Amino acid sequence: MKNNRQVPFIITVISIIIGFMLALQFRSNQMIFATERQDLFQLRQNVQKEMERHQKLLNDISKYEKLLREYETSMNEGGGLSVIQEEFARIKRENGFSDVTGPGVIITIEDNPVAPGMNKLQSPVIDQDLTDLTSLLFANGAKAIAINGNRLIVSSSIRTVGEGIQVDTKPIEMPYIIKAIGEPQSLEAALRLPGSDRESMEAWFQFLNKKFIIQKSESVTVPAYQGTVRVKYMKPMEQKGAS
């Protein structure tokens, strides 16, 4: 009789154990599935990036093949110098050594006036804030950027020197006026929308108690780079047979 009473108890315990094991197995399968989905998503992203990189290389090859054909044609027609001049002008534009004009945005950063009786502090804008801002603009399609009239090129730096900020070797002061050429809607959205790991750029400067004004325009002029480019690791190659 006692054994008969133990049977339901044993069955109940076994059922609980089986249910617990099934739950663990189900959860484990879910975790594996989620990991596989995440890995697949990352793989797709990597493939997409490689495809875009491959397409860019193909476009570059096509562009330079076209340039070579134009140069050969011009040489045959006695106009090779004009092709070289046009290519030189293009290189200057793309690398920041000539003025450029196009659609874009103008961003003004200035102190927000504090009303009498308010104790809200004015937090300073540091070099990293401006670096993050310009990096975000470049990442979202900006083709040319200047801060207070100072053009940024590939070797430019924004850094704190003493109590101020310098763009390359040029001191800049508030208000900061950043001009960027690119698709105006895309640049504005990048500044106003938060990222996956950060708040929006607009919200950050407002947190510092700064006015952050974005003005879209169909005609923004970014001046040419005025500094000196120093070449450290290259020198003209001597031609063979030269005395």
TrEMBL record:
InterPro entries: DUF881
Pfam families xref list: DUF881 (PF05949)
Keyword tags: Coiled coil, Membrane, Transmembrane, Transmembrane helix
Coiled coil: 37-74
Segments crossing the lipid bilayer: 6-24
Recorded family membership: Belongs to the UPF0749 family.
Name of protein: DUF881 domain-containing protein
Species of the source: Aneurinibacillus thermoaerophilus
